[in-house]
Specification:
31% of the residues lie in helices and 24% in strands. It is of the alpha/beta class and 384 residues long. Helix 8 links the parallel strand 13 and strand 14. Helix 1 packs parallel to helix 10. The protein is globular. It starts with a strand and ends in a 5-residue tail after the last helix. The model has no long low-confidence stretch (mean pLDDT 97).
Amino acid sequence: MKRIIIAGGNIAGTIVANRTVQKLSEEVKKGEVEIVVLNKSDEHVYLPGQLLMAFGLETPSELVKKEKELLDPRIKFLHGEKGTITKIDPANHTVHTADGVAHSYDYLVISTGVDYTWEEIPGYQAAAHTTYEFDAALKMREALEKFQGGTIVVNTARLPHRCPVAPLETTLILDDYLRKRGIRDKTKIIYTYPTQGVFGRPITNKFMLHIFEQRGIEVHSPFTVTSVNPTEKIIESQEGDKIKFDMLIGIPPNMGAKVIGDSGIGDRRRWIPTDKFTLRMKDHSNVYVIGDTTDLPVSKAGSTADFESYVVANNLANDIKGNLGMKMYGGDVLCYIATGTDQATYIRFSYTMNESPPPPSYIHWWGKIMYNKMYWTVTAKAVV
């Protein structure tokens, strides 16, 4: 029997597991292939929805489901200590878990995601609200409901980070939210970003700078945060700026999962060196990497993981039964960008294609909402 281990669940791990079992359905039925998902939690959180939840645009209960409900019943799912990964050992084809078991594999998919390393910046976590963690997003919603005016700073701590468009969305939804509450004229919004501009891709950066200017949003960049004083409510940058705020919304530093560093298989920021086309871990032909875990020059986004899952599932099936041919990942990404509480645009790009964001509209907002709603029944279950 061939065993495929998916190390990590949630968005990337769930989609690729479901897509792989579909590709190998006959082999799984005959007992020739086993697919195992390892994940610490038995819950699956739809992370992109947390941003909308912070503005009262999404219901908390709609963002969480049991992982087992989403996985094809032919997939073995281990969670708790049995699913908590403590070491990944590609040299010996094993994954170790907190219950002391060494799981051997023939093929491995690493989808361990990111860790938020707040501790890199003194005072940051104590001072900042964020949409990047579920409970923190709920607290941010409460803080916004009580907010009556002042200075709000939206800060991106480090690049790269999960969901690159989230700082843009946070800022523009915030602007619209405050207008509809009648307190935008009492509020200064300051957007701070580690590189020049407001976004890393030139076309989208120019497009968004124009919208920010129209909305009266201040931009301070480059702004590489070095410390935050929670008592004085001052955020400082490496470039020498000091900004006083009444509310700070932060995108925390992102690194690969701690287990990647503990296993010695990542780079300095714990991203795994990955072939940009085959999605194989470099120097390991039976290990694939997907989603936020890679070191690829593409967005760390749910849609990225979805596009990558077609490649990984096909190539796993080809490795095991042959005759399918190798698929190559083209760097495809699609991100909706909310530009208010009922308006959005989107960007679609790849290694060889630049984006061309359309004017924000209600239609694209509903595209974003429908994509979110269909996640549970279509995307996560790899229906298409």
